[in-house]
């Protein structure tokens, strides 16, 4: 693939990055745009950027200097895609197409879920960022690989320094799928997807011989204070333990909104952690939901969590 | 099993909790005590506590009011146990028996790893806490189950409120396996194991009909500021993605200490997160290591992380 631009080792680069749907979903979109979505256009990338001096075996250091959005974002459930898409024992409608448009202002994204005005801290990051693949060919942008790509690691945000293996002359860095917010897990298959402007600094580290990307980050400023409500899953399979967490969380939130809305909300705010992988034969996965995102409805939700009958 | 004590709904209870080895590992232990460890004595529990008025179908609310240790703790690798115990492609010695004794002072546990004096924030919590099982019988304390037990969820710390399903008259709460520190994952199979005094408040919530425990917690005070170094794993299996993270992290830390020491350190400080479960067919698991635990050696370790050749 022909490089879009050529830059020098140490240069700062400013990019315009499209949101994941390549403009098919817009600020004023409705469900019809999800119905008609052409999935083959998912993840338009900005790049590739040819960095002079980068040779196979080197690393490319990418420092994220700034990302900002344009005042809106979207989250959708696309049938056939998402963590629950193969599950049958889920509330009706969880895997149906759905769309939520968020507005973004003063460091928060907000949208109505049921009759709750949800406000989520913004911490923009590129869902997709990676160097050119080792092998020639046309590749899907969906799976992450040794070159990075669709890693969806939300801590990879402003001030992070990411080190990528270089497989091609010039490194051939591309960026896409920027998110304004995401929970660890991104369970419904999309985060708060948004077009952004991204400012990066690139640097060649000679002969680094990385096997796959690594990065340095600070705990993101956007961590929530206050109470978190937590569901746990226990299983001899981390996937099934995670499913148990997500299903329980949807079941609870469905007291306040449509199940499919709960699914989209969890994709945006719930963090999945691997609590332990050693207590044979059941591993623990925990999912944390910060109550502060529910604003003045937080008290009601907390009461329901602590006293509900089901 | 006959209750050890009877308490009223709403009572505060103070417990003395043994560390996981039941006194087989002591403050002045050496490797011989690991060699001679009788695994059948693992997880002595304090309890059961019979809470008056608790009936099957209710929930038992347990608020953790205080936990404090006795100035020391231990971490060990016990052959045959731990996340890497079935792996062959690991550095020599990773799965050999090993023991680290930590001293605890002013909110930190500390121990020497290689020639690095590692200092880890203390946030004591019960590895094992749970109500009486639904079925009669003698049960291993190793796996977590619907009644709780060996969940090893480190956020379940002082000020947390945990809700357990009640399966037996009186709830029959037991506590054990207290930890002074642990990373999400507890990868080597032990955390900073320590005898503690635990203060709890118990309360019956009628007819709650929980399927498994849930809890409320605040982000723990012990979160680390500053840079974190992060390894990522990509695989169509969350277990294999997690293995990739742990192996890469051990490989890096082995530049500074024995591989088995790196394994024990990661068990104590590295947090495993499920970054995404939707980018078909490769999921992302990320492991975060706070550089501040390395004290004045942090700069050297960060330099090595950012510029190393391997």
UniProtKB/TrEMBL annotation, chains A, B:
One Gene Ontology MF term: hydrolase activity, acting on carbon-nitrogen (but not peptide) bonds, in linear amides
Pfam families reported for this sequence: FmdA_AmdA
Top-level lineage group: Archaea
PANTHER family reported for this sequence: FORMAMIDASE C869.04-RELATED
Name this polypeptide is given: Formamidase
């Amino acid at each position: 693939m022909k490089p879009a631009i050529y830059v020098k080792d140490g240069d700062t680069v400013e990019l315009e990055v499209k949101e994941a749907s390549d403009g098919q979903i817009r600020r004023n979109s409705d469900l019809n745009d999800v119905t008609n979505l052409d999935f083959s256009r998912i993840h338009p990338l900005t790049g590739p950027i040819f960095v002079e001096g980068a040779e196979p075996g080197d690393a490319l250091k990418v420092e994220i200097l700034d990302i900002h959005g344009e005042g809106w974002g979207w989250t959708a459930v696309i049938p056939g895609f998402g963590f629950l898409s193969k599950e049958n024992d889920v509330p009706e409608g969880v895997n149906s197409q759905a769309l939520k448009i968020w507005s973004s202002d003063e460091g928060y994204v907000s949208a109505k879920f049921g009759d709750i005005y949800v406000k989520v801290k913004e911490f923009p990051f590129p869902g997709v960022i990676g160097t050119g693949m080792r092998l020639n060919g046309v590749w899907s942008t969906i799976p992450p690989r040794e070159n990075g790509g669709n890693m969806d690691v939300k801590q990879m945000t402003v001030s992070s320094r990411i080190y990528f293996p270089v497989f091609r002359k010039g490194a051939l860095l591309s960026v896409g799928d920027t998110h304004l917010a995401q929970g660890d897990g991104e369970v419904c298959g999309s985060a708060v997807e948004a077009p952004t402007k991204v400012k990066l600094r690139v640097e060649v580290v000679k002969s680094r011989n990385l096997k796959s990307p690594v990065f340095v980050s600070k705990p993101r400023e956007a961590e929530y204070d206050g109470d978190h409500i937590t569901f746990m899953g226990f299983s001899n399979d981390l996937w099934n333990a995670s499913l148990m967490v997500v299903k329980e969380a949807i079941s609870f939130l469905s007291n306040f909104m449509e199940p499919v809305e709960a699914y989209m909300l969890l994709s945006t705010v719930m963090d999945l952690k691997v609590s332990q992988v050693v207590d044979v034969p059941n591993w623990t996965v925990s999912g944390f939901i910060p109550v502060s995102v529910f604003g003045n409805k937080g008290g009601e939700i907390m009461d329901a969590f602590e006293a509900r009958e089901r």
